[in-house]
C-alpha cells in the first residue's frame, strides 16, 4: 500500500499546443510548464500561466473552496493544477483543491516564421532559483531560441546563466517548434554533450511515420 500511495502521490505539469486548419493555434497547460510564442522581432508572448500559490487567481479559486490561503506554501502545495497527485486532491468535504482542469489560450492566428518555445517545470524552477525574474527569463529564452542553431545549444547557453548546484534534482527541457513553415532540422551537434544537456535526438523519421499513418 505504501508503494501504491507513493506512486499515486506523483504528478506532473503539462503543456499542449495544437494547430487547427494550419493557422489557428490553441495552447493548454497545467502546472508550471511555460510556453512562449515568438513572432519575428516582437517581445516573446507568454501563452500560459503558472498554477501555483504565486498566482493570485489560483489563490482566489482556492479561497472560494474554503481553504485558508494564508497558510499555503510552495513546499506544502507545489502546484495548484496538475495531472496525477491524487492524494493532494482528496477532500471529502468539498471539491478537490488541486485541479486537473487545464487553462486554455486561443485561437491565435499563426504566421510564417512563428515559433513556440516550451520550458519544462524544472527549467522554470532553475531560472527562478537563479534569481531571474519571469520577464527577464522570457526575454532571455526568446533571444536564445531565435538564434541559429538547435534547442540543445540554446538550452546549454541558458544554463550558463543559471547558478545551480551540481546535484540539481530536476530535469530541464527546452523545446523549440517552428510553425507555418518547412524548416529542416538542425544537424546533430559536432561537439559532445557538456554533461548538462542530453545528446541531440532527431524526431523527423517519427514525424514522417505518423504523417504516413494519418494519410
Automatic annotation (TrEMBL):
Keyword Metal-binding: no
Keyword terms, alphabetized: Kinase, Transferase
Record domain PPM-type phosphatase: where: 1-179
Xref: InterPro entries: PPM-type-like_dom_sf, PPM-type_phosphatase-like_dom
PROSITE patterns: PPM_2
GO molecular function term, any single one: kinase activity
Name of the featured protein: Putative tgf-beta-activated kinase 1 and map3k7-binding protein 1
Amino acid at each position: 500500500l505504501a508503494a501504491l500511495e507513493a506512486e499515486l502521490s506523483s504528478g506532473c505539469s503539462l503543456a499542449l499546443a495544437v494547430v487547427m486548419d494550419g493557422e489557428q493555434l490553441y495552447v493548454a497547460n497545467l502546472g508550471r510548464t511555460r510556453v512562449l510564442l515568438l513572432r519575428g522581432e516582437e517581445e516573446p508572448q507568454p501563452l500560459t500561466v503558472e498554477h501555483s500559490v504565486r498566482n493570485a487567481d489560483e489563490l482566489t479559486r482556492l479561497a472560494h473552496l474554503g481553504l485558508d490561503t494564508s497558510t499555503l506554501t510552495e513546499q506544502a502545495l507545489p502546484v495548484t493544477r496538475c495531472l496525477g497527485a491524487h492524494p493532494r486532491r482528496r477532500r471529502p468535504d468539498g471539491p478537490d483543491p488541486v485541479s486537473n482542469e487545464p487553462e486554455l489560450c486561443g485561437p491565435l492566428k499563426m504566421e510564417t516564421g512563428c515559433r513556440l518555445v516550451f520550458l519544462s517545470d524544472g527549467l522554470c524552477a532553475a531560472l527562478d532559483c537563479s534569481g531571474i525574474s519571469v520577464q527577464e527569463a522570457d526575454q532571455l529564452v526568446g533571444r536564445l531560441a531565435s538564434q541559429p542553431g538547435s534547442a540543445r545549444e540554446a538550452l546549454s547557453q541558458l544554463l550558463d546563466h543559471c547558478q545551480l548546484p551540481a546535484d540539481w534534482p530536476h530535469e530541464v527541457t527546452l523545446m523549440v517548434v517552428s510553425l507555418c513553415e518547412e524548416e529542416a532540422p538542425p544537424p546533430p551537434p559536432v561537439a559532445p554533450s557538456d554533461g548538462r544537456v542530453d545528446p541531440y535526438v532527431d524526431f523527423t523519421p517519427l514525424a514522417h511515420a505518423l504523417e504516413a499513418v494519418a494519410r
